[in-house]
Amino acid sequence: MLTISPIPAFNDNYIWHLERDGEHWVVDPGEAQPVIDALAGEQLAGILITHHHLDHTGGIAELREHYDCPVYGPGSIDGVTEPLADGDKIELLGYPVRVMAVPGHTLDHLALLLEENTSDGQQYHLFCGDTLFAGGCGRLFEGTPEQMYASLSKLGALPPETLVYCAHEYTLANLRFAAAAEPGNSVLQNRISETESLRARDQVTLPSTIGEELATNPFLRCHIPALSRCASNHGAENNPGEVAVFASLRKWKDNF
Ligand SMILES: [Zn+2]
C-alpha cells in the first residue's frame, strides 16, 4: 500500500514522504534533518525535485551523503543525478510517474503525476511544488503570466479526483484572497470554514483535489465572469482575456 505523508520543514514547507513496502522517497527536501528524523534509521531510496529554490533543494547534499540515493529533477540543479524533462515517464514505487513542465514560478519547474492502481481504479497524485497551491498559485519569479496560466491550465485539466500535494501550508491565506476576489462563491465559503477549523487544530490542509481547486481557486477560474469583472476593477482592461485576468489577480495577490 502507498502512503503519502507531509514532513514539515522551515515555517510552512511540506516535504512529501512516499512509502510503499518499506521503500521511501521524498519530494523537495529543503532541509535534511527532518527527513532523517522521519525515516528513523530506514534507507531513503530516492529524491524528487520540482524546482531550484533553496527551500526545495537545500537538503539534497546532506541526504545524498547520508543515503547515497539518486535525485530526479530539473537537470540544471546541483545534485540532480537523473535529469527529467517534459513528457518523461519514470517508474516509482512500482507506479508510473508522468513528468510535466510547468514554467511560471520558475522556468525549470516540473510537476510529477503518479498513477496508483487501487482496487477502485486509478488514483492520481500530483506533486506540483510551488505552481498550483491549495486555493492559490506561486508567484511569478521567472516566467510570464502566459507561461504560468498555460501551466496551471494543464494541471486544471487533470482528472478532478487527482490529489494535489503542493509544497506550502498557504491554504487559508490563499482562500481569504480568493474570497475577496469572488465573494459570491458559496463553495469557497464552505472551504474557508473547513480550512479554518483544520488550522485551529494545527492540522495539515493538504492534499486538496483538482476538483476542489477548479471550484474555488481564482487562478483556475479566470474564465468566470465574476473574476473577469474583479480583474477589471484591479487594473485589467474591460472584458479582459483569461491571461489578462490571471495577470491582474496575481499582481493584486502579490500585495494583498
Ligand atoms: Zn519556489
Structure at a glance:
With 256 residues, the protein is an alpha/beta fold.
Structural description of this entry:
It is a single chain. The chain is an alpha/beta fold and 256 residues long. It has a single domain (2-254), classed as Ribonuclease Z/Hydroxyacylglutathione hydrolase-like (Metallo-beta-lactamase, Chain A). The chain is 33% helix and 27% strand. Helix 5 runs antiparallel to helix 6 (186-200) and helix 8 crosses helix 9. The longest helix has 15 residues, at 186-200. The mean pLDDT is 97.
| N-to-C series of helices and strands | EEEHEHHEEEEEEEEHEHHEHHH
Any idea what the CATH architecture is? 4-Layer Sandwich
What small molecules are bound in this structure? zinc ion
Count the helices. How many? 9
Structurally, how many domains make up the residues?
1
Largest sheet: 6 strands, mixed
Distance between the termini: 42 Å
CATH third-level topology: Metallo-beta-lactamase, Chain A
- Poorly predicted runs: none
At the fourth level of CATH, the homologous superfamily is Ribonuclease Z/Hydroxyacylglutathione hydrolase-like
Mean pLDDT: 97
CA radius of gyration is 18 Å
- Shape, please? globular
